Amino acid sequence: MSEYIVEMKNITKKFPGIIANDNVTIQVKKGEIFAILGENGAGKSTLMSMLFGMYEPDSGEIYINGKKEEIKSPNHATDLNIGMVHQHFKLVSNYTVAENIVMGIEPKKRALGFLPYVDMKTANEKVRKISTEYGLEVDPKKKIEDLNVSIQQRVEILKMLYRESEILIFDEPTAVLTPQEIEYLLKIIVNLKNSGKTILLITHKLEEIKKVADRCAILRRGKLVDVVNTKDVSTKDMSNLMVGRDIETTLEKKEASFKNIVLEVKNLNVENNEKIKVVKDISFNVHGGEIMAIAGVSGNGQIELADAIAGMLEVKSGTVKLNNKDITNWSIRERNVEGIAYIPEDRQNVGLIMNFNLNYNLSSKNYYKKEFSKNGVLNYQKFKEYGKQLIEKYDIRSSQGGNTIVRSMSGGNQQKVIIGREIEQDTPLLIFVQPTRGLDVGAVSNIHKYIIEERDKGKAVLLISLELEEVMNLADTIGVIYNGELLKVEDANKMTSTEVGAYMMGVKKN
């Protein structure tokens, strides 16, 4: 019997204008955690998608337990005991949690002895049991469309656990989780390994690889650079191999110079779709030349706070002012024109039009402006020129340049599209929600520089991040939100990460 449970030999996969995988060979031992590291667009997800049957290689061979397999579909992969947690959720939004998890392998019963029906009661009970067992609690009867992205991520993980797969592919599983949830998930992954499962882990987070992985394959622009034992290399070594150069890890940030108040939020109250108050009497100001960061554990009202300021959620009471103008009841377009740029948490459903090309998405805030259209006729040449300019400036990698359909791009490059588009609006206020989610270490460094550059231009920046390190590195002022309340607002240099973490857990109150 083969030493390896998974072998992918000399795999090549091409798409129009790009070689996603170029003669890649990896060999994975049974019961190990094998990490796959690379920049956004390096070919990691494509390689794993072939193992899961979503694509077929143009050349090369795949062996499972020493037997050559031509994996034609995800169902075929499932039959081979391969499961995958996708970076971009594969969920049906108007189905319930349990319906998504059991789809295709529904438990069935017969009414009156001969009429088949899906036994959702049993499905709900089993899903609830598994979710509790793994610390991924969800309500099986909730619809996906009513859940935030972190809960949707849990559903993706539960889909795989429900099917009891032996080879588990995790594609950026921690991208939308809080630090506490990440720690718990990593423990789950180690426990799965200890129970005999084989884990393939795609992540940009080098510390996660060091913490749990046995070996790591490093891809760069579709080619395999090296396979290393993680205990023998540093995170700096891995990042340098990944990008082909030294990454600047220290963030240069001069002292802030506050200007006039740009954003004024006063006694703001916001309800969610279920009429539950999720933002409770919050007040704060953001000045020009200031990065105000809101720190908090996921689900404490910070996303609703940002959505209300941007006009995506109705304000129940209180006021939002931009440059001393009351915009509380203004439309989204009016707020954009007045001077709000918004990088949302959910890039696919809110930030982008997935079936439009790159040029159209980059110009989606400008199409009605006179240089992009005249008398209602769009200037497609301007779209093309503008798209080319932003693609180069923000290092957006795509197979067909501005004609690339955004849905076909990697998640990290989709994020670059939104960030580039919003920064180029040159607005007095920029709201960044989870701006570096799913980005590799090089891209994270660039985004942090962009944020500081905007501050130094005199812009007001509201940053909402689940990454405590990101908050501590970037913020001039920190506000900590817990259960919808702003517990503390303080100069960043007067707070330690331990103090911020305590407020995030509701331990300390003002």
Largest sheet: 6 strands, mixed
CATH superfamily of the largest domain: P-loop containing nucleotide triphosphate hydrolases
The N- to C-terminal Cα distance equals 63 Å
Radius of gyration: 24 Å
Helical residue percent? 25-40%
- Strand pairing plus helix content: what structural class? alpha/beta
The shape, in one word, is globular
Count of DSSP-assigned helices: 17
Strand order of the largest sheet: 6-9-10-3-11-12
Describe the structure.
The protein has 510 residues and is an alpha/beta fold. The protein has two domains: 240 residues, P-loop containing nucleotide triphosphate hydrolases (Rossmann fold, 3-Layer(aba) Sandwich), CATH 3.40.50; 157 residues, 3-Layer(aba) Sandwich (Rossmann fold). The chain is 32% helix and 28% strand. The strands form six sheets. A six-stranded mixed sheet has the order 6-9-10-3-11-12, sandwiched between helices. Helix 6 links the parallel strand 9 and strand 10. Helix 4 crosses helix 5 and helix 14 packs parallel to helix 15. The protein is globular. It starts with a strand and ends in a 6-residue tail after the last helix.
Secondary structure elements and their pairing?
Blueprint: E1 4-15, E2 18-29, E3 33-38, H1 44-51, E4 59-64, E5 67-69, H2 74-79, E6 82-85, H3 97-102, E7 108-111, E8 115-118, H4 120-133, H5 149-162, E9 167-171, H6 179-194, E10 198-202, H7 206-212, E11 215-220, E12 223-229, H8 235-243, E13 261-271, E14 277-287, E15 290-295, H9 302-310, E16 315-322, E17 325-326, H10 332-338, E18 340-343, H11 347-351, H12 358-362, E19 373-374, E20 377-378, H13 380-393, H14 411-423, E21 429-433, H15 441-456, E22 460-465, H16 468-474, E23 477-482, E24 485-491, H17 497-504
Parallel strand pairs: 3-10, 3-11, 6-9, 9-10, 15-22, 15-23, 18-21, 21-22
Antiparallel strand pairs: 1-2, 1-4, 4-5, 7-8, 11-12, 13-14, 13-16, 16-17, 19-20, 23-24
